[in-house]
Amino acid sequence: xxxxxxxxxxxxxxxxxxxxxxxxxxxxxxxxxxxxxxxxxxxxxxxxxxxxxxxxxxxxxxxxxxxxxxxxxxxxxxxxxxxxxxxxxxxxxxxxxxxxxxxxxxxxxxxxxxxxxxxxxxxxxxxxxxxxxxxxxxxxxxxxxxxxxxxxxxxxxxxxxxxxxxxxxxxxxxxxxxxxx
Amino acid sequence: xxxxxxxxxxxxxxxxxxxxxxxxxxxxxxxxxxxxxxxxxxxxxxxxxxxxxxxxxxxxxxxxxxxxxxxxxxxxxxxxxxxxxxxxxxxxxxxxxxxxxxxxxxxxxxxxxxxxxxxxxxxxxxxxxxxxxxxxxxxxxxxxxxxxxxxxxxxxxxxxxxxxxxxxxxxxxxxxxxxxx
DNA sequence: TCCCGGATCGTCTGTTTAGGACGGTGCACT
DNA sequence: AGTGCACCGTCCTAAACAGACGATCCGGGA
Lengths: 181, 181
Known about the structure:
Distance between the termini of chain A: 57 Å
Strand order of the largest sheet of chain A: 1-2
Order of helices and strands of chain A: HHHEEHHHH
Largest interface: A-B, 64 and 64 residues
Shape of chain A: elongated
Oligomer: homodimer
């Protein structure tokens, strides 16, 4: 009864996904992650097998094992788990993620910005377009508020990257303040 | 003689910093990271002791040990190390980092965007201001090209975050496309 | 001189994440 | 019944993270 399970972002991802699903197998989670959440917060699928086990041990999940066949493990929230999730969601955070961008890291150390821009721009543009497509499909759906907001954050982000790298391509040497809309 | 030292971003950070410094101790690196690079790509200081060791074993660095006193370790690049760094810098990457933002993660799972905005906005604004201050000091310095660009990337991102969260504070329920300048 | 305190500098340990290799299971199609 | 492929799960190694802890240096006071 140590109750000493430390809850990391990974834990809350699992809790959050299972809450939304009601009951789910790790493989289900993997699918969902691949489809939506993985776009801005990815994790190795092995985690989605290991973490529910940990959470079950900590009393946040309960496990039901399929009788025959693959003997899948189905997880759902316990009261403890639901409470932990609620508490986490209710607590706003001032924490700020870093850029941690490989291309920028290289540029920082002296890589040629134009070459980097040439590699980054198409990828960023494609991503932006993909997100915008998803947004159109998601815009009507109700109850998609959270994911939709996250998506929009992703979109504005990608746009900034596109602007940034586009600016590098032109080789702007002086003031690169983009006042465009 | 396996020469099989895998080089990770952390490795290149160490190589890059040591190249810039000529010769440096882990503690020196730690200082530099805290001051500049850590703003967008942080790492635990223990890494800055462990990694040079690994790199020395792999032939990318050479180590000189202080005689008396603290017996500090001074590292500098070998030909191999310099070559590896150059090669890495010359190779543009299309890799795109994820947002991986805690606040967005919470919102995704249903946290209240306005509360989150209230927590995020001041922090983001402060960071943006801090960066802009640094930019003013750095703008004149020559040879600061790379770091300056990285800084500017950081600035535009912080601004986007500020816009994004500011939009949430107003509780815009319909179209939140900000055409502001 | 000796001791003390804080700043400087370095090491160590446990846990989580990353990333992928690899192995079973079940179904569809012959 | 056999075979191939998609589905599903486990395992392993290396790296990153986070922070506790220890040692060294230096200045100031007893």
